[in-house]
Write a structure and sequence with these properties.
The complex is a heterodimer.
Chain A (H helix, E strand, L loop, with lengths): L1 H11 L1 H9 L16 E2 L9 H5 L6 E6 L2 E6 L9 H5 L5 E2 L3 H8 L1 E11 L9 H5 L1 H6 L16 E4 L2 E4 L10 H5 L5 E11 L6
Antiparallel strand pairs in A: 1-4, 2-3, 5-8, 6-7
Chain B lengths: L1 H13 L2 E7 L5 H10 L10 E4 L7 E5 L6 H11 L5 E5 L2 H4 L22 E3 L6 H16 L2 H4 L2
Parallel strand pairs in B: 1-2, 1-3, 3-4, 4-5
Helix pairs in contact in B: 2-5
The chains are: A alpha+beta, B alpha/beta.
The structure holds iron/sulfur cluster (4 copies).
The site of one iron/sulfur cluster has 15 residues of chain A, from helix 4.
């Protein structure tokens, strides 16, 4: 009998009752290292569009022209918070979680270029790609309508009856050639490689 | 008298929110986050939120995933089965924008708002369990508080 009374008394303690009805697990705070939506650090954006190019989510980020210069804008509902734009931005305009600290500490960066590939089986040697390429036109304004060129500096030209790619590294990734190819024979791919700067160089 | 009754109803409803979730074509990432809400770490039930798989018992429908063709009519059916007052919450990017599936050549047809009314959406791919939790907790009282009073 005594034990039952003790038992009941134990449960009638106001503190216990209050806890029983209101206790929750510790308030769940977002940890400081949580990789949220990228935020602006205040650095100046140079409108290189690296962030837009690397973003894997359709419509995740757009670099917009604001009153004073350019500014990237991240769209929740599209952005998947992968943090790639933060890593890809050469100016450190964006920040998210501790990505910037980690990349600075490890000396890691993204290195990217454009890879051009022509499928010789469907290419009909019209030379549209070579002619439409704005970089080509700039280098050699004399570029012939058939895509042949006397300049060795152009990105690509028709040579020996097929498209020869000479200077892939000059491509800006505008994909004008892709849209102007009647057969979808030329493909522009952005290649991204993660690189780590050796400690001696940093 | 009526007001006291209403107060009681409000109090009870705020402590007893029944949730049902439907996956209309997701990658399962968001489903796992909803599941994590049930785990002791986040423990959704301590807030009086119970997860069912029966829409007829639900107050809140969590919609996960970008809508695939097979789900277009079924999602509507599920929504119609939920008794009033009800509310749908979109979980993740998929029901909002289609997320990574919003590309040419995919069969999904987001957003989910085209098919059923969405009261709140939780962006993220996937959203954190705490974000899901706070969305449910913040949207539920708005919908259920004084529901009878507001009815025309
Ligand atoms: S975090 Fe990822 S998904 Fe979001 S804007 Fe940056 S690159 Fe795109
Ligand atoms: S990568 Fe950085 S500098 Fe380049 S456009 Fe994006 S935010 Fe601007
Ligand atoms: S993507 Fe643009 S710059 Fe690059 S080869 Fe094609 S047209 Fe020229
Ligand atoms: S929002 Fe992302 S995690 Fe959620 S279902 Fe869609 S793709 Fe998967």
């Amino acid at each position: 009998m005594r034990s039952i009374i003790y038992y009941v008394r134990e449960f009638l303690r106001p503190e216990w009752i209050r806890k029983f009805f209101t206790a929750k697990t510790a308030p769940l705070e977002t940890p400081s290292y949580f990789k949220g939506y990228p935020t602006l650090t205040g650095n100046k954006c140079t409108a290189c569009f690296s962030c837009m190019m690397i973003c894997p989510a359709p419509g995740g980020i757009a670099v917009l022209r604001k009153k004073d210069g350019w500014e990237p804008e991240v769209y929740p509902g599209h952005c998947i918070r992968c943090g790639l734009c933060v890593e890809a931005c050469p100016e450190g305009v964006l920040s998210s979680g501790r990505i910037l600290d980690v990349t600075a500490h490890d000396g890691t960066a993204f290195w990217s270029w454009y890879h051009l590939e022509v499928d010789d089986n469907i290419c009909m040697r019209c030379g549209n790609c070579c002619v439409s390429c704005p970089v080509n036109r700039q280098i050699d304004p004399q570029l012939a309508g058939s895509g042949t060129s006397s300049s060795d500096e152009v990105i690509m030209r028709i040579e020996g009856g097929r498209v020869q790619i000479l200077h892939e590294e000059k491509c800006t990734g505008c994909k004008t050639c892709e849209t102007n190819c009647p057969n979808s024979a030329i493909r522009v791919a952005r290649m991204v490689e993660g690189v780590q700067i050796p400690e001696a160089e940093t | 008298m009526r007001n006291i009754l209403q107060e009681i109803k409000n109090a009870v409803r705020s402590r007893s929110i029944h949730v049902s979730y439907v996956d209309v074509g997701s990658c399962n990432g968001c489903d796992i986050e909803v599941l994590a809400c049930l785990a002791p770490r986040y423990d959704i039930e301590q807030y009086g939120i119970y997860v069912h798989n029966n829409p007829r018992e639900a107050d809140v429908l969590l919609v996960i995933g970008s809508v695939t063709p097979q789900w277009v009519d079924k999602l509507r059916d599920i929504w119609d089965k939920i008794p009033e007052p009800k509310v749908a919450v979109a979980i993740g990017n998929c029901p909002i924008s289609g997320c990574v599936y919003a590309r040419r050549g995919t069969l999904t047809s987001p957003p989910v708002e085209k098919y059923i009314p969405i009261a709140a959406s939780v962006p993220g791919c996937p959203p954190r369990p705490t974000e899901i939790l706070s969305a449910i907790l913040s949207v539920a009282p708005l919908i259920f508080k004084d529901y009878e009073e507001r009815k025309p």
